[in-house]
Amino acid sequence: MALGPGPDPLERATDALRADTPDWPPVQAAIKGHVRTLVRPSPTLLAVSDAGLEAQDATGSRTWVSGRVLTVLVRDRVRALGVDPRDVDLDLDGDHCRGVTVSVVGAYDTDLLEQGERVRAAVAEVLLDLLGPDPARDPAGEVRVHVVDVVVGDPRTT
Amino acid sequence: MSTEGLPRRWDDVSDDALVRAARLDDQDAFAEIVDRYGSGMLGYARRLVGDHADAADVVQAAFVSAWRGLPTFEGRSALRTWLFRLVQRRAADLARARRPTPVDDRLLSAISPADRRDPLQGLLDSELVAALQAALAELPWHQRSVWLLREFEGMTYDEIADVLAITPGSVRMHLHRGRRTLAERMARWR
């Protein structure tokens, strides 16, 4: 084999180093496993009884729900409507959730006002189902929807 | 927990949509981000810090930072650029915490097995790689980072500037100096 002058040694070394790929799968599995154990900080929300009372029964039991649960439920309900939520901001008053602001990305050439109204109604339903008819919430303004972007195609994948 | 409305295949989803989903606690979307960019981040980290185990720690720390930081990620940078910036920062943390170590047998052992059909070429490649790694390890931090991001990740000057939080003009300068030094160090292999 000839070992005379060949390509530039830096180029040869760079090509050889480029071909030296790291063993990614074990690292990949470790990272995914580790990240799944991480929990972002989230407020605790008080759910009220069907009568709108903090006490759920005669003994005064109370029920708290993680804000993360509310966020995930809102996320999935909004996505089911064909728009993509970007942010779900909770308006808190102590342990009470007074309302939710949802920022969404919509699809170009769709009726965004109509979609916004559907999002508002769906999120209000989630709030009622999860936290009950809390008097701390103002039914007229408990859900605000901001359309922050419009994309061509399905906003959930684009 | 409901998965209503979620796409079944994340690999067809844009970076922007993945980021939106992961911001809102979607672990599957974040797993796709790991799949999409992790291997490249690991390769970069290993060439930057010179050791596979350290690189794995750096990339894991970068992804932990990404998971925690996504809710405040404003999307001014592309997702890939942002992730590489996190790798850069975690690698810099590591470099600050440790004294530089010379290239040793551990580095050689981390190199992929040579092509068994041509052992001489494989040996030459291994020695070349070791020499390049040694030269890289002696380059100043920014020159090394710029050269790797340009040569291995194919990033533009603007993207590199974004990763390293320096100006594109500084990127040009570091790249020029890094290339010149590496060429000088590798010249004896000609």
Description of the structure:
The complex is a heterodimer of chains A (158) and B (190). By secondary structure, chain A is of the alpha+beta class. Helix content of chain A is 36%, strand content 25%. Chain A has a domain at 43-151: 2-Layer Sandwich (Alpha-Beta Plaits). Chain A has helices spanning 9-19, 24-36, 67-79, 112-131, and strands spanning 44-47, 63-66, 84-93, 96-107, 143-151. In chain A, helix 3 (67-79) runs antiparallel to helix 4 (112-131). Chain A is elongated and about 85 Å long. Chain A starts with 8 loop residues before the first helix and ends in a 7-residue tail after the last strand. The mean pLDDT of chain A is 91. In chain B, 69% of the residues lie in helices and 0% in strands. Chain B has 9 helices and no strands. By secondary structure, chain B is an all-alpha fold. Chain B has a domain at 10-99: Orthogonal Bundle (Rna Polymerase Sigma Factor, Chain: A). Classes of the chains: A alpha+beta (158), B mainly alpha (190). At the A-B interface, helix 1, helix 2, helix 3 and strand 3 of A face helix 1, helix 2, helix 3, helix 6 and helix 9 of B.
Brief summary:
Chain A contains four helices and five strands; from the N terminus they run ααββαββαβ.
SSE blueprint and pairings:
The complex is a heterodimer of chains A (158) and B (190).
Chain A: H1 9-19, H2 24-36, E1 44-47, E2 63-66, H3 67-79, E3 84-93, E4 96-107, H4 112-131, E5 143-151
Parallel strand pairs in A: 4-5
Antiparallel strand pairs in A: 1-2, 3-4
Helix pairs in contact in A: 3-4
Chain B: H1 15-23, H2 27-49, H3 52-69, H4 79-97, H5 105-109, H6 119-138, H7 141-151, H8 157-164, H9 168-186
Helix pairs in contact in B: 1-2, 2-3, 2-4, 3-4, 4-8, 6-9, 7-9, 8-9
Counted beta strands of chain B = 0
Biggest β-sheet description of chain B: none
Q: With helices defined by DSSP (H or I, 4 residues minimum), what is the helix count of chain A? A: 4
Average pLDDT number of chain A: 91
